Structures are given as structure tokens and as C-alpha cells.
Model the fold of this input.
Amino acid sequence: MARGDQIYVMRPLAGMDSVYEHHGIDCGDGTVIHYYKGSGEPIISRTTMETFAMGSPVYPYKTSVSFIPDLVMERAESRLGERQYNLVTNNCEHFANWCKTGRNVSQQLLNYGLDARQLNGNAGLINIAAQEGDPIQAIELMRQASGNVAIAQSRLQQQYSQAQDDMLTWDRVARLALQKNREDLARAALTRKVEFKRKAEKLQKQLMELAETEVSLNRNRALINQRLTYS
Done:
């Protein structure tokens, strides 16, 4: 393992060992950049390898394509201090893959089948699941709706990350153009930057709406489970 490598350790869950992978970026100096929870909310931090490993073996995560180490480190360091952890759309694996390959994906979520269905009719499924009727059928509809929301969030998050990257790219282009006294090119670049900024804002709003949908699903699921408990 070396500087800029994507690495992971197996972490326990609910009293069971080695349930899920926790990912990070190896800095090559005994430290790792990763989503670190500590005693509070998760935050992207640079911690010691020992803190990252928590006594477990550390493994390299192999990808078919990746950025050069300097760019991987630049991307990882650019998000230090971020507090936007989301299990479905922005977990530790999303972050590490984004740093390493530019793709904001979590293979673990995909392995759970969240890409098996096409996004289709979220609102309808939610409304049906919330209605009175067969609770077993309602639970199945809720499961489908949750999967569809997760797929939508994953896709929108990728588009949002790309729009942010494009916005930063055009900002750099504008700065370089100004350094060369090319105001015409700088204006054109800034126009493109504004376009991607608006796109990012629109996608962010859609992500917030999906997050609200997720809350609604959880509330409805709790009501259905309550019905089953007291039936």
C-alpha cells in the first residue's frame, strides 16, 4: 500500500464481526483520510492508520482505473472537514471511490441489489404503502420504494459531484485566462461556471427532496410495523 491508495478494513455491526467495509485514502505517511465518526457525527478527517484500522487488518482496494496519487490526494484533502455523511448517498466508500476514480459509488450498496431495478414510480409506491390494507403487501411495497429512492439518490449524487467538479474546473480556466490577459476567454469560462453552479443547486434541491421522501418512508414503515405488532 502506498500514498494515494484506496484502502479498507472490515468493521463490526450489531455485535457481529466483519460485517461491512470501511474505506479511506492512504496518505503514505502513516495517516489516512476517511469519514471518521469518533464520539460525534462523521467528519472527513486525517487520522492515524491505527485509528482507521481499530485493530483490524488493512487491505488495499483494487480498481480497474484510477487517478494518479497526487490527484487522489488533492481530491481527498479538498474535502477535509466535510460533515455530509449519508449511508445511501455519501458514505465512506462513496468518498474513497470519488477520490480514487471520480465515481461517487458504493459497491457494497450495489451488491445489496439497489441497482437491480429501474427507478419507477416512487410517489405511487409510497402512497400505496401508506394506505390501509394488507400489511404484508405494504411492507413489500415499502421495500421497493426504499430501493428506488436509494437508486435515485445514488444517481443524483453522482451528477451533483460531477457538476461541482465541472464548476471548479471552469473556475480554474477563468483564472488562467485572466492571468494571460484573455478577458474574453475568462468571461466565457465564468459563464460555464455559473451554468454548472445552477445545475449543482438544482440537483442539491432534488437530493433534499429525496431525503424528505426517505424520512416519510421510515415513518410509514414504523406505522406498518406497529399495525403488525398489535394485530
Q: What stands out?
A: The longest helix spans residues 183-230. The beta strands are 6-13, 16-26, 31-36, 43-48, 59-60.
